[in-house]
Amino acid sequence: MTNEAIIQLKDIDVTFHNKGQTVEAVKKVSLTVERGDIYGVVGYSGAGKSTLVRVINRLQRPTAGSVEVSGQDILALNPRELRTARTKIGMIFQHFNLMASRTIADNVGYPLKGRLARDERKKKVAHLLDLVGLSEKAEDYPAQLSGGQKQRVAIARALANDPEILISDEATSALDPKTTSSILELLKRLNKELGLTVVLITHEMEAVKEICNKVAVMEAGEIIERGDLVTIFSRPEKPLTQDFINTATQINQALEKIFRQAATLNLSESQQLVQLQYVGASTDAPLITELYKRYGVVSNILYGNVEILQDTPLGNLIVVMSGEPDKLAAAWQYCQDAGINITHLNPNDSEVA
Amino acid sequence: MNLLAKYFPNAVTMKSDFLQATGETLYMTAITAIVAGIIGMAIGIGLIVTQPGGILENRVVYNILDKLVNLCRSIPFVILLAVIAPLTRIIVGTAIGTTAAIVPLVIGSAPFYARQIQNALAEVDHGVVEAAESVGSGPIAIIFRVYLKEGLPDIIRSSVLTLISLIDLTAMAGAIGGGGLGNLAINVGYSRFETDVTVMAMLIILVIVFAIQLIGDLLARRVDHTA
């Protein structure tokens, strides 16, 4: 993977004026996507993420800022040049946006109309349908397909012009979890096999967790946190990011249950509820045993979870540690030295992390 | 045949008049449909692409078209017939007769059709238009390959509606000198108290309307793949 920037958004502002009201959908956002990235942009609805990525192919003209795609200044293009540039930027949508009046094959072949001769087009369409696994549906109409199949058709259509970039605007948000996974798998495969750069907008951190290598978190028109996936997941700084991650890893639900139980646990002075988080190699260390051997600290595991992100394990443990106060402190120090993140949890504090 | 003679004593003696009148009605309808169809379609498409948020957004053009359509649609057709008689005379040389009736018919039905087309095309999912833009389609491709293609079932339904209302208008134009079945029904049947002639003219118009409706429905169903 080279580090060549394929998309460069700089200081993007998008302001809407509607009936005397001014809405700043995107505020001074800069974003760089490198070739081969699967870049996730997460945020709740209304955060401005869709508006931001629609700037990439100028479906949305920014109020201010600059847009560079594959070294081309997108905002300086005339309509004809823009259309040519757009052929290199595929896009898929939450509601698929297929043409109901055309067969699946015609939907996929639509972008090639007027660009390729009929039989060449046919060949290409067959290849694209094969790529997304829908060859036998070629003569069906969209209304006959399931949501997941429709999105595969939309992906095939988006790939018809051999784009270098694929923008996925909440493409899995209308799909069930299983279908979502299969679509994400397909995107990952296309990323690997075709070298396709993917910009994935979603409100589900699970989707990002599955395939992205980088992620940006958006809130109220701004990117509040960004970085590579493992860093963001292991050291989220902003509360919103933590919230997204805890939902994705289901730690929130676990904590809620544990906190409800905590009263019955009746923790004494010598017991502490802590969350241990570790990345990469430290996952493999026999931590719990080590803590007992060295400090006589007993750890009772209430919840455990290991995520594999970009081939890097990310572990989360919620444990009750029991031991002498000074031994506990030493144990925590040992953990920290081993690169393990410790959060002390207070069950009486109803606020979930 | 005897039954026909019994209930339509006057009409049966006017077979050639009825044939001619039916021909005139169909002629006025067909020519107007073609001319008003092209004009109405163009204005309807114009309204859709220049409307706020349209693919060729243009406030000035949109407002002009919008006001023009509203203006023409506000004038009652009977009055329009009289008002534009001088214009008709300039275009076809006379203000009386079947061909002359086509001018007010076009002006009366084109704006109606334009609105129908606008409504039909407004039903085309904006997301689909956006998807076409995202693969690099230009305005012409989007109009012909997306709007008109996707909107076709609704366009056919609107066209049927417009055709039927057009037949209504031809009857009115006929009554004041345009010929056709309306002329027969009013100037012969009504004025001479030959009610059976009026009824027969009405029945023929009903048959024409039903035929248009039937064919339209069949066509619309054939091109509609939404379900």
TrEMBL record, chain A:
Organismal lineage: Bacteria, Bacillati, Bacillota, Bacilli, Lactobacillales
Catalytic activity: ATP + H2O = ADP + phosphate + H(+)
Gene3D superfamilies tied to this protein: 3.30.70.260, P-loop containing nucleotide triphosphate hydrolases (3.40.50.300)
SMART domains (alphabetical): AAA, NIL
GO CC field: plasma membrane
The organism of origin for this protein: Levilactobacillus parabrevis ATCC 53295
Function comment: Part of the ABC transporter FtsEX involved in cellular division. Has ATPase activity. Essential for cell division and viability.
PROSITE patterns xrefs: ABC_TRANSPORTER_1, ABC_TRANSPORTER_2
Family note: Belongs to the ABC transporter superfamily.
UniProt keyword Transcription present: no
Name of the protein described by the UniProt record: ABC-type metal ion transport system, ATPase component
Pfam families: ABC_tran (PF00005), NIL (PF09383)
Any one GO MF annotation of this record: ATP binding
Keywords: Amino-acid transport, ATP-binding, Cell membrane, Membrane, Nucleotide-binding, Translocase, Transport
GO biological process: amino acid transport
Residue intervals of the ABC transporter domain: 9-245
Coiled coil: none
InterPro entries: AAA+_ATPase, ABC_transporter-like_ATP-bd, ABC_transporter-like_CS, ACT-like_dom_sf, MetN_ABC, MetN_ABC_transporter-like, NIL_domain, P-loop_NTPase
UniProtKB/TrEMBL annotation, chain B:
Domain called ABC transmembrane type-1: residue spans: 22-216
Protein name, entry field: ABC-type metal ion transport system, permease component
InterPro entries: AA_ABC_Transporter_Permease (IPR051322), MetI-like (IPR000515), MetI-like_sf (IPR035906)
SUPFAM superfamilies: MetI-like
Gene Ontology biological-process annotations: D-methionine transmembrane transport
Transmembrane segments: 26-49, 77-107, 160-186, 198-220
Keywords (A to Z) from UniProt: Cell membrane, Membrane, Transmembrane, Transmembrane helix, Transport
GO cellular component: plasma membrane
Location, primary (coarse class): membrane
Topology relative to the membrane: Multi-pass membrane protein
Record family assignment: Belongs to the binding-protein-dependent transport system permease family. CysTW subfamily.
Gene3D superfamilies assigned: MetI-like
Location(s), subcellular: Cell membrane
PROSITE patterns referenced in this protein's UniProt entry, alphabetically: ABC_TM1
Organism: Levilactobacillus parabrevis ATCC 53295
